[in-house]
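Sorry to interrupt, but I need a hand with the structure work. It will help me judge whether the discrete encoding reads sensibly. Write everything out right here, beneath this request:
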Amino acid sequence: TGFDGRDIAVTVSQLSLLKSRLSHAITMSCHLIYPVYCLRFDKTGKYFITGADDQIVKVFHLGVGPKKAPDADDAMSFSYGANVRGAVLVCSLRGHAGVVADID
């Protein structure tokens, strides 16, 4: 069987609603020229892991940003847990035999 006009209209309506509720938040280019195939957050939401064609898995921490060092007027440091939007690379896991296309 095929779609009638109503089925298509509902699908377009749902798509329109979805697009109105979503926005582009960030573009990731953390694997140089390679596209990111998978991204997974941990249960706390503080870390995320990416995988790509470069055969590297990268682990990032969210909520990291610059803040003043407590004992210096002009010194800047990075601190986990700062209330600033951003992410910092925690580690790169190398040695995978192929493209990292899924993280489970």
Summary: DSSP finds one helix and six strands in the chain. The beta strands are 36-41, 47-52, 57-62, 65-68, 76-79, 87-93. The radius of gyration is 20 Å. Residues 5-21 form the longest helix (17 residues).
